[in-house]
Amino acid sequence: MNYNDGSNGREARGCINVPKAYKNIDRKEMHSTAKMDVYNWLEDMHLPITKKTFNIVEVRFKNSRKGFFIKPDEMSLTIGDLVAVEANPGHDMGIVSLTGDLVAIQMKKYGIKENSEEIKQIYRRARPTDIEKWERAIELEKVTMLRARKIVEELELEMKINDVEYQGDATKAIFYYTAEGRVDFRQLIKDLAREFSIRIEMKQIGARQESARIGGIGSCGRELCCATWLHDFRSVSTNVAREQQLSLNPQKLAGQCGKLKCCLNYEYDVYVDALKKFPAASVILTEKGRALHQKTDIVKEVMWFAYDDNSAVLIPVELESVNKMLEMNRNDKKPASLEEFTKPTEVEEENGYQNVVGQDDLKRFDKKKDKKKDNGKRYGGKGHNKNKNNAGEQKPKGRKKNIKRKNDNKQ
Predict the structure, then answer these.
(1) Is residue 188 pLDDT above 70, yes or no?
(2) What is the CA radius of gyration of the chain?
(3) pTM of the predicted model, to two decimals?
(4) Rounded distance between C-alpha atoms, residue 155 and residue 56, angstroms
(5) Which of 67, 108, 326, 359 is most buried, with most CB under 10 Å away?
(6) Which residues pair with 29 in a beta bridge?
């Protein structure tokens, strides 16, 4: 049974939290943004007739877990097929993520041989009964995780249960946890086995893996790399930030996991290659005095220096000029000063707003309204009389005075 078009989304709920991981476009299976997807760049290459197709496929499971399995010769599998694979004990359910010769390259990358005992068998394509049982097991995962956390709290163990993964036949469950130190969870395994009547396997994960499971939005405004596509967590040191001229501020350099951001490694190699152009010497001797190197702009290839007697004033010098001055120092010569090698700074004119398409002024809401020029607009426009009644008729003026005069005349 093939669910490549992702019409029911069952495979997405089982292994990843992205519904419809695969979709059919122009009769070709296209990948979406699922984290566990693999781009098969050998797909369009035709093999020789004499060569047999590679009989090992890659299968993915929940929590970035993958494995290699041997398929029967008479079985033809494609990416996205649901399969029942061998497990210890029973069987598990997974999704085929890679087939063909690219699997051999992946196995060589991870150091797994074709005749290794770690490679298990694929039993069959998933049957409807297998999928229904698998879905019932998935529904138990959240309930099991919450109950396991209460048991951990009762035992007063310094650990946190992050996630639970049930096996396809619901006979075994993997409990993923994080802990700062060593934890004795022997009593915990007994209590969990008694509570849920299944085989228990405890697997410790790091803070980065926990952040990948929770997900979130990074400081860049995009989804976390570890939650979308990054599955190879490499160590990040403070030296990576120093090489990129970044301030060592833990609040800005740390990610949601509390560790240094993984994206610090992305441009590290570029900065290392760029720093090879800059000289190692940090002192320039001039007739005006000795100048010490303060900071470097790797992108613009500019170095800032300051004299010993006036360290507050930084003088920018281009890399080419710095090399010339250092060459003069090596020949026992001194330049007159750093200022003669600096270019005059050009003041860039600010591009003001120009109304070229008939739009309103961008600062139209910033202007304050002049109350003196209101001209009675609040009461209906210029020249409008405030004493008019609702019918638009003007009230007679001096009515009370006329009444008093009549009364006086009568008297």
Answers:
(1) yes
(2) 37
(3) 0.62
(4) 44
(5) 67
(6) 24
Q: What is the DSSP string of 19-77?
A: S--EEEETTEEEE-S-TT----TTTTPPPPTTSPPP-EEEEE-STT-EEEEEPPTT---
User: What does DSSP assign to residue 331?
Assistant: T
pLDDT tens per residue, range 154-168? 999 999 999 999 999
Q: Is 54 left (phi over 0), alpha (psi -120 to 50) or beta?
A: beta
Alpha helices in 59-127 (DSSP H): 101-109
- Retrieve residue 94's tokens: 């997974």
Question: How far, rounded to the nearest angstrom, does the alpha carbon of residue 203 sit from its chain's CA centroid?
Answer: 25
Instruction: Give the separation between CA 305 and CA 291, rounded to whole angstroms.
Output: 6
Looking at the DSSP bridge assignments, the partners of residue 124 are 84
Q: What separation in angstroms does the CA of 371 have from each of 368, 374, 375? A: 9, 5, 9
Question: Per residue in 60-91, pLDDT tens?
Answer: 988 778 899 999 888 888 888 999 999 988 89
**What separation in angstroms does the CA of 276 have from each of 159, 184, 267, 329?**
46, 50, 15, 20
Predicted confidence at residue 5, as pLDDT, reads: 41
Residue 173 banded pLDDT, cuts 50, 70, 90:
very high
Residue 291 structure tokens: 């100048």
DSSP alpha helix (H) spans, 317-379 = 319-330
Q: Residue 113 to residues 71, 100, 106, 146, 408: CA-CA distances in angstroms?
A: 16, 16, 11, 40, 125
Q: Tell me the pLDDT tens digit for each residue of 265-316.
A: 999 999 999 988 898 878 999 988 899 998 888 888 899 999 988 888 899 9
Domain spans, the chain: 10-126, 134-205, 210-274, 278-341
Show the tokens assigned to 234.
């490499």
> Which architecture characterizes domain 134-205 according to CATH?
2-Layer Sandwich (3.30)
Give the pLDDT of residue 180. 87
pLDDT at 232: 78
CA 312 to chain centre: 39
What mean pLDDT do residues 110-129 have? 89
- pLDDT given for residue 192 in this prediction: 93
Q: Who contacts 259 (Cβ-Cβ below 8 Å, separation ≥6)?
A: 207, 208, 236
**Count of alpha carbons within 13 angstroms of residue 238, beta-carbon side:** 5
Question: Terminal CA-to-CA distance of the chain, rounded, Å?
Answer: 114
